[in-house]
Design goal:
The chain is mainly α and 364 residues long. The chain has helices at 28-41, 55-77, 84-91, 93-106, 109-114, 128-139, 146-159, 164-212, 214-226, 231-241, 250-261, 266-296, 299-306, 308-316, 324-339, 346-358. The longest helix has 49 residues, at 164-212.
Length: 364
């Protein structure tokens, strides 16, 4: 991904779509091992320092996703074929819009600034919890569930505890990461659709040129040589020209020559494009399904279940017997105590407070 987690677009310099957030698919047991190694590898800055902004990227993601959605709508209105991944985005764009709205509502700048930031590595300057969310999304192919979430966070904390704020930020961080992944997939979908439309245009011109004469056919071949080359472009052009005679269709001759230069064949590029579209389809479906899951999870309950601070307070007091509105102020106080004065971890603060902080109503 380079030096920055999120690459901002360059003006007047079109770039290929960024690769999706997708890595080797791990079992739950392998996820736990990765969580432990990730926790050992990540280092937190000694102070909050300057953090990398994320709001601009979120708004850019919103723009890209909305533009892709509208392009798919236009394609379907003119009866152009679309891929299964595009259909998923079309049918579930309301889910995506809800996630973006949740992020904008739940990520005040002050809260973001208080999250511990990484001091080095490719995510330097971003909250540590982003590394957790990114790894989860990458190594599950965006197919999250509560068991994976719980075991990953628990394994991470066997090596390095997460703060109360980080645990509460996990939900919104996962949302941001899923939206980022969908943006990358949307760019891939749009690039594929654009390449197919361009190939259709050339195929129409080539078919007409065959009846007109060699001069126009030569012009089309020259234009083909300047067209952006991609597997999607080649596949669509091959599909449209498959019944033509290469001897009378210079565009088809050009395509066959280009494929030989690329050391490939029509059959090979068709297989590659099918595999690419299938992988995109699976990941888009997983992203949408995980977005729905995140909305359904009881995040306060999840955070309490994996919180090491809560564990200390439960062991040392009647904390578990209290209701949530009563427990929450204790956590907030421990967060505040850990930020000021001599630097101590939240778990140490909770342990020091122990029964004095939460020893029951008789002491309050």
């Amino acid at each position: 991904m380079g030096a920055s987690l999120f690459r901002m677009p360059r003006q007047n310099s079109p770039e290929p779509p960024e690769p999706p957030i997708r890595a080797e698919l791990f079992s739950v047991e392998r996820l736990e091992q990765h969580a432990e190694s990730l926790a050992a590898a990540q280092h937190v800055a000694p102070d909050l320092g300057r953090s990398r902004p994320i709001t601009k990227r979120l708004y850019d993601n919103t723009r890209v996703l909305t533009a892709t959605y509208r392009a798919i709508v236009r394609a379907t209105s003119t009866h152009q074929p679309i891929t299964p991944a595009a259909e998923w985005l079309l049918d579930n764009f309301h889910v995506v819009a809800d996630q973006i709205r949740e992020i904008k509502d739940d990520l005040p700048p002050g809260y973001y600034r208080l999250l511990p930031k990484l001091s080095d590595g490719r995510l330097q300057g971003y909250p540590r919890v982003f590394g957790v969310a990114w790894a989860l999304v990458a190594h599950t192919n965006s197919a999250l569930d509560i068991q994976k979430l719980t075991r990953f966070v628990e394994a991470y904390q066997r090596v390095q505890p997460l703060t109360i704020g980080e645990l509460w930020a996990l939900a919104i961080t996962l949302r941001i990461t899923l939206v980022e992944n969908l943006r990358r997939l949307a760019e891939t979908i749009e690039a594929q659709q654009s390449a197919s439309r361009l190939a259709d245009t050339f195929a129409d011109r080539a078919s007409g040129a065959a009846a007109v004469g060699s001069e126009q056919a030569s012009t089309i071949v020259d234009s083909l040589g300047q067209a952006p080359w991609s597997t999607a472009f080649a596949v669509e052009l091959a599909h449209r020209l498959r019944d033509q005679d290469p001897n009378s269709t210079p565009a088809l001759r050009w395509l066959n020559d280009r494929l030989r230069v690329e050391s490939t064949t029509t059959d090979q590029i068709v297989r590659e494009e099918f595999q690419r579209q299938s992988a995109t389809d699976v990941t888009v479906r997983n992203v949408i399904t995980s977005m729905r899951l995140i909305t359904m999870i009881n995040w306060p309950e999840f955070s309490e279940s994996v919180s090491l601070v809560d564990s200390v307070l439960r062991d040392a007091s009647e904390f578990a017997a209290m209701d949530f509105p009563t427990r929450d102020p204790y956590r907030r106080a421990i967060e505040e105590f850990a930020r000021v004065g001599p630097r101590r971890s939240e778990r140490r603060r909770a342990r020091d407070s122990g029964r004095q902080a939460c020893g029951g109503s008789s002491s309050q």
